[in-house]
């Protein structure tokens, strides 16, 4: 699978999760505006067990709160649990009760905003992973287009061709062409973008073209026309 595909997947998941977090956050804010505060008491803790990533069983505790509405006893079963439990049996708590929707929640930042916070965190992680995977290759492609059109042409000489063993995508390692060139009486060393596939048909001592941004000499492109350096499919980082 191409790196670009991973970028789209992560960015899509991140965007959807953030949208869900936003929706839940707006719903919680609306709930708070319409609710009244009532006294309540924890009458029991529901224990729910699950297996963690190591296969070990762990328990979370979900409080059940008893409260009165117009003389009628009601029970609130929290959908948010914790380990260790946030409350003990017989603890007094405040309940937010919405007379319009007939819904209730424990008046606590954790129980009110935990779903929004955890979804925002997860959505941000996916987005921060996916967005750079798509953005940086796109930016590099634009830079290469600019350099090919307006970059200063510098004759270069190939000094080495190496396989970068530290980078691997789809079980492939990229080639890197190192070369030297003289720009404004300054001898400089340059490295090509990652070259995927077969080894470039170049040898040490071959002449090659380097294109440099005159306003920013750190921005350059080693021009290897037949090489697969497509930044949209794999990223040089």
Work out the radius of gyration: 30 Å
Q: Main beta sheet: strand number and arrangement?
A: 5 strands, antiparallel
**Which stretches are low in confidence, meaning pLDDT under 50 for 5 or more residues running?**
231-237
Straight-line distance between termini: 18 Å
| Oligomerization category of the chains in this entry | single chain
Structural class based on helices, strands and sheet pairing: alpha+beta
Shape: elongated
How confident is the prediction overall: mean pLDDT? 90
Helix percent reads 25-40%
What is the overall number of helices? 2
Strand content: 35-45%
What's the count of strands?
10
| Element-level helix/strand string | HEEEEEHEEEEE
Instruction: Identify the strand order in the major beta sheet.
Output: 3-2-1-4-5
- As for the number of domains, it is 2
Question: What this model shows, in words?
Answer:
The protein is an alpha+beta fold. The protein has 2 domains: 3-124, no CATH class; 151-223. 31% of the residues lie in helices and 37% in strands. The strands form 2 sheets. It has a 5-stranded antiparallel beta sheet, covered by helices on one side. The chain has a 5-stranded antiparallel beta sheet with strand order 8-7-6-9-10. Helix 1 (3-34) packs antiparallel against helix 2 (109-150). The chain starts with a helix and ends in a 14-residue tail after the last strand. The model is unreliable at 231-237 (pLDDT under 50).
